[in-house]
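Hello,

Our lab assistant flagged a job as stuck in the queue for most of the afternoon. It eventually completed. Since we weren't sure the result was trustworthy after the delay, we are filing this so someone can double-check. Below is the sequence as submitted and the structure that was eventually returned. Let us know if re-running is recommended.
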Amino acid sequence: MLISKRFKTILFAVICLPVIAFSQDFQILSSFTKNGFELTSITETELNSKWGYFNLNQASADYDTTDKLGFESSHYLSYNISRGLGVTGGLTLQNDDVLPQLGLGLDHSTGNFSFNIYGTGFYSLTDDELGSSFNSLIEYVHPISDRWDFYNLLIIEADITHDITSQNQWNIGFQRNKNLQFGMSFDFDFVDDFDNNDTEVGIFLGVNL
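-- returned structure --
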């Protein structure tokens, strides 16, 4: 199925932008390595005691091919069954594909530690096939002083349809005044096993709005 860029842009705007306007937690991160850069935005919203929304947008490019921007936007709407475990319906927009998803999600937040985990089955409108994925975001913030915190964020994205392919980013550094983050960024990707992997080290900057 041919999916136009205009259709995906409109779909992204209709789904994401109204929720961002009313979001309780909106975060923007940028990471830079010697080969390229990546921009990430994270949105979390509790619609009520049972329904919640989570969104992860990522755009990346190499410095020598900035006209070829890689883009992925994942949206999850979850219904809480018990203690953060819920049924999740989602939609992921990619450069050349749209992926409706359905599965289970687990959201948890206690003090300085929080995580979002989504295991879903999806259907590729481009490839006309079913698949499965695992996505997770884990954040830990430890207070150092009134203004400074130790900051830790791990993003895991895995496709387990055929071989196991995983794209991961670990940001570790400091947070100032609860809204500005900076430090080292580690990108590590692997296919099928840890013998076929790629790792890059860089820096990251982030802000909570």
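-- support follow-up --
The delay was a queue issue, not a problem with the job. The result is valid. DSSP finds one helix and twelve strands in the chain. The mean pLDDT is 85.
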